[in-house]
Amino acid sequence: MTPMVAIDDIELAAQRLRRQVLDTPCVESRTLSQIVGAQVFLKFENLQFTASFKERGACNKMTELAEAGLTTGVVAMSAGNHAQGVAYHAQRLGIPATIVMPRFTPGVKIERTRGFGANVVLFGDSLEAARGHAYELAERGGLSFVHPYDDDAVIAGQGTVALEMLTAVPDLDTLVVSVGGGGLIAGMAVAARARRPDIEIVGVQTARFPAMVNAIQGTRHPGGTSTIAEGIAVGTPGERNREIVARLVDDLLLVDEGDIEQAVLMLLEIEKTLVEGAGAAGLAALIRHPERFRGKRVGLVLSGGNIDPLLLAAIIERGMVRAGRLARLQVGARDVPGVLARITMTVAEAGANIDEVHHQRAFTMLAAQNVDIELVLQTRGREHLAAVIDALHHAGFQAEEKR
Fold first, then answer.
1. How far apart are the first and last CA of the chain?
2. What are residue 331's DSSP bridge partners?
3. Helices 382-394 and 339-349 sit at what angle, rounded to 10 degrees?
4. 99 sits in which H/E element
5. Are both 221 and 337 inside the same structural domain?
6. Least enclosed by CB within 10 Å: which of 65, 92, 278, 358?
7. Are residues 164 and 312 in the same domain?
8. Got the DSSP string for 170-206?
């Protein structure tokens, strides 16, 4: 299939999107730059009204349909961000919208989509199943199907991200873009190559959904069934996007779930910005492959901020555990009156805070006169945790971190 999207299409999309979609900030993060060893510029697409870049492609497509008089209704399938973009701009343009979403979609995305006036249909356990049902609904009702990524108007709309980034920071060396179906990176690649033929373009996928990597690089990386980056959990990349990526994208990288978790937490703590797993994939690549980007001026797209609150809470807690700021200690002691008070006093004097205490007499391998006490502590980090354990040893207790 010959790619149909050209720079003229993206520039036209930019005109359509003016005053309808936010021209989001693209600014340097000095702290992240120091950490990863590259000059990092962040494009805050999580600040869009629907908290995702997906609004761009949806807006361009919906405006195109409205200009053509095709306003009887639209159907889309999405895990959430495309759904919100279509629902919002359909409502704004007075076009009825039905959105088919997989059953695993986070509740926050379902409710926000409904909040924009769309009829939400939950169907299947994957995007592929949802897509099939959406096609059926479109055909049955004579409605326009709005694909989340394999559509020329959608690709052109997403490409406006690159136009804005290169206007804000013209001398970027590299663009790092998360990849699911490929709409964002395809549009950005067309725009960036037209403006800066020498720029490096790197795509990032989660190792659990490596469809584009396998398609382009001819690899056979096994896929998973779930990921915290559900926005890029796509089993089959778009045909249009695949051809554009093969021609214009320099490299595709894989990142692990732990890398994405760390990136979400770093953006929250350092930049004070909330980014979903898919939106943090670019930073995850810089964490996983620092030498690949060292010394370069790198533009990262924070592509979305719609994350389930319970997932975010788990990521924060797990991140604190990895950093040693939340730790579980096992302390062995003689089972005599006052021993628990001595242990807690020792921990307090070492400057740690106790979250939980479990006093275990029966389920232990210690002698009958001894007791196992499990403490969950808040500390300042690994060094502080080591100091707390050392203080317990000096007080005469057996103590070790329990993983």
1. 52
2. 373, 399
3. 140
4. strand 97-101
5. no
6. 358
7. yes
8. TT-SEEEEE-SSSHHHHHHHHHHHHH-TT-EEEEEEE
Q: Quick one: pLDDT band at residue 180, thresholds 50, 70, 90?
A: very high
Query: Hey, what amino acid is at 350?
Result: A
Phi first, then psi, for residue 98 (nearest 5°) are -120, 130
Two tokens, residue 50: 């629907």
Structure tokens at 59: 């807006």
Residue 360: DSSP 8-state:
E
Q: Which domain holds residue 308?
A: 7-53+159-318
Residues in the chain, how many? 403
Structure confidence at residue 235 as a pLDDT band (50, 70, 90)? confident
Task: State the Cα–Cα distance between residues 377 and 390, nearest whole angstrom.
Answer: 14
Those residues whose C-beta lies under 8 Å from the C-beta of residue 344, and which sit 6 or more positions away, are 354, 357
Rounded CA-CA distance 40/27 in Å is 8
For residues 386 and 69, give the distance between their C-alpha atoms in angstroms, rounded to a whole number.
68
Q: Is residue 362 part of a domain?
A: yes
pTM exceeds cut of 0.85: yes
Instruction: For residues 180-203, give the mean pLDDT.
Output: 97
Distance in angstroms (rounded) separating the CA atoms of residues 22 and 24: 5
Per-residue exposure over 267-293, b if at least 16 CB sit within 10 Å of its own CB, e if not: bbeebebbbbbbbbbbbbbbbbbeebb
Structure tokens at 393: 């040893």
Check: CB of residue 95 under 8 Å from CB of residue 66.
yes
320: Cα within 13 Å, side-chain hemisphere: 15
Counting beta carbons within 10 angstroms of the beta carbon of residue 92, is it exposed (0 to 12), middle (13 to 18) or buried (19 or more)? Answer: middle
Residue 93 shares a structural domain with residue 59: yes
